[in-house]
TrEMBL record:
InterPro entries: Ald_Fedxn_OxRdtase_dom2, Ald_Fedxn_OxRdtase_dom3, Ald_Fedxn_OxRdtase_N, Ald_Fedxn_OxRdtase_N_sf, OxRdtase_Ald_Fedxn_C, Tungsten_al_ferr_oxy-like_C, W-dependent_AOR. Residues 5-209 form the Aldehyde ferredoxin oxidoreductase N-terminal domain. Its cofactor is tungstopterin; [4Fe-4S] cluster. Belongs to the AOR/FOR family. Keywords: 4Fe-4S, Iron, Iron-sulfur, Metal-binding, Oxidoreductase. It holds the Pfam family AFOR_N. SMART domains: AFOR_N (SM00790). It comes from Candidatus Cryosericum hinesii. One of its GO terms (molecular function) is oxidoreductase activity, acting on the aldehyde or oxo group of donors, iron-sulfur protein as acceptor. This is Aldehyde ferredoxin oxidoreductase.
Amino acid sequence: MSGGYWNRVLVVDLQQGTSRDEVLNAGARDLLLGGSGLGAWLWEHHSVSGAGALEPGNALVFAAGPLTGTFAPTSGRHEVVTRSPATDAYGEGDAGGTFGTALKRAGYDALVITGSAVRASVLVVDGDQVRLEDAADLWGKDVIDVDTALRTRLGGGFSTALIGPAGENLVLLANIVHDGADARVAGRGGLGAVMGSKLLKGVAVRGTKQVPVHDPDALKQLMRETVPAMREQAIGMHLFGTTGGVQRAEEAGDLPIRNWRDGSFPQAAALSGQAIAERLTGRYHCAGCPIGCGRTVRLHVEGHEGQNGAGLEYESVGALGSLLMLTDLDVVEQAASLCNVFGLDTISTGGTLATAMEARELGLVTAADTDGIDLVWGNGAAVLAMIPRIARRQGFGTRLADGSRKFAASVGHRELAIEVKGMELPAHDPRAYVSLGLGYATATRGACHLQGFSYAFERAATMPEIGLTAPMDRFDHTGKVTMVKATQDLMGLFDSLKFCKFAIYGGLNLTQMGQFLTAVTGRRVDTDELMEIGERIYTYKRLLATRMGISREDDTLPERLLSTDRGGSVAGHLAWLDADVLNEYYDLRGWDRLGVPTVATVKRLNIDQLSIVGPAPEG
Ligand code: SF4
């Protein structure tokens, strides 16, 4: 291939304080493309077999895609792959911002970090210059302070991946936060704790190289064909961001309320993108994105009062607003900002706080147990007080720092934790979109709406090349097993090429994705082959997850969603998942009845080739 890739991976050994370049294995590259798929392969081939998530042998991979760093719209993204300490299984997080582009411009397709540093450190990748710097002065600081300090120390042009106090304290809700106040996160699964276990406070990357493009004229032509339409069709995302859908989600019975129990939340409008629009200070575009769904606001957190920073996202409104019965936009915004600066995942933090609030309601914990902070529904001051305590593992925060599953078990009521595989549900209800039940149950990293993004195709999105020519009925089960598999495979592709899923709202289709790949790399692929690659990626990640202990018994849903009618606009509807559905899905995928891909499936998808190719020799 003549473009898109540098065919070069930077491998850093924190223990030894050394780094080396490794030639990107062509076999793995061609079978898995980049981002999520290639990141998973690099993780497997650089981790010590059987290493626990917080052990030095667990590699941490940052992988860009073949299009990252080019002008392909929305491709300025990267994937972080590692073993998740929250699920103790396969973990990954897709992030936008500028880090992936900086990595590519530094001349690397991916960065693999192995071992643990002997002291608090920051990894600096300045083009070909790679070094570890002491970070004793940064340890304990929040991500905005660290980002600012690094930019002052290193100079301009760097992009950063950082942990806050949550990651340092091995909190299982910890994120990796990119670019400080911009807060583009690799979220879910406690990825920040893996970085903390390595005593790695941050990674700063800068590069000036131009990513090679096979056919620049073809790329320009594709830009002309797609970018104006993308801007026009996704104008709602630009104007109101992901929070533009808050009120619609409430009306559709999608927004989670009071730990997934209630059916309506009349205050949704006050937390919507339309309400937030009045307080914006600007809009944010990830590198190379014509949509620009990010928004900036003035922060109201200690130490950063009045500073510009990331505005609310839909998921944060759901997890830290309606889920906890918080109705004051100022408080919800402050709670999300606190999570960002401390390096906590807003979804998992909200989900865990909701479990604690329900435990408080049931009398399983008292205000005395919770350090005098009264975790009752709607108490914003309590939420704001508890978030830093979780990040610092202080007092009752220690009991919440390992997530909802462990906390619920500690009070003898596992059913209060609304999670799958140990990861809290995002703010979309499977009782409102039937595809989500199977999607959450079978997502490789735990409850995840993005590894399938299926609900988008029950709402407004289409993808004609895979038969989704019109949005499907959200309550009708017909064809949904096939649809869930197809959208999971499709998202495996998005996460590996590193297109943003929101580009679907801008009209990006599978044919165009293939055309972009051809223009950038020279590789010709039709849509069938693309979908086979997506299936390979999804199946490969499942295989890794099963080797880490995931099996059929983990492919389940919280009982509450299967048996409790939440009322409202989804009255009478329950989440859709049973043994027959799971069997049909496994059969369709070519997995056995324990959910393990069969030998025949592994061969059909050439996944067996991945174990043969092995790491390439040093370049
Ligand atoms: S649509 Fe939003 S999240 Fe996606 S790349 Fe653009 S700015 Fe980033």
